[in-house]
Amino acid sequence: MMYHRMKVAVAADHAGFPLKARVLDEVRKLGHHVFDLGTHSTDAVDYPDYARAVAEALRDGAADRAVLICGSGAGACVAANKFRGIRAATCHDTFSAHQGVEDDGVNVLCLGARVIGPELAGELVRTYLKAHFSDIERHRRRVRKVEQFEEEFGSERATAATRPR
Questions:
Q1: 65-70 and 33-36 as β-strands: parallel, antiparallel, unpaired?
Q2: Which one has a higher pLDDT value, 80 or 148?
Q3: Domains of the chain by start residue, with CATH
Q4: What tens digit of pLDDT does each residue of 102-134 get?
Q5: Which of 70, 77, 91, 110 is the catalytic position?
Q6: For the stretch 79-101, what's the b/e string if a residue is b when 16 or more beta carbons lie within 10 angstroms of its beta carbon?
Q7: Is 91 part of the annotated catalytic residue set?
């Protein structure tokens, strides 16, 4: 497949900050244009703010894909998936990193800095950014269904049943 230079947004909370430099370096090595959306230290911050920054960069066309890093990868992923058009996945193995893009159209790779080390992070970023949506009919159909969920439920507020206790 032909090489495609992408615009890649990278953001992290304080727990993800130490891994962010490795991710930025890997994106640059691959020849992509990278946007560092913060944070810029290990001072405590809230991961939802960085999920919002990534979602807005994708929504506004400033980025084609994104990498979002927090301690576990889970919180940032949950927050990112609240935004229309965002398909985020926490991946700590290479199969998930490429399959998520190829089959599910994942546009945000979430990493857990307290779960994986810098070498695996680099491998996951390479795998994720080299993957392309397969465009197979069954995968297009499934992604459309997810988009329909966004249309159907996107404006509803959380109910008592969906809020954590």
A1: unpaired
A2: 80
A3: 7-153 (3.40.1400.10)
A4: 999 999 999 999 999 999 999 999 999 999 999
A5: 70
A6: bbbebeebbbbbbbeeebbbbbb
A7: no
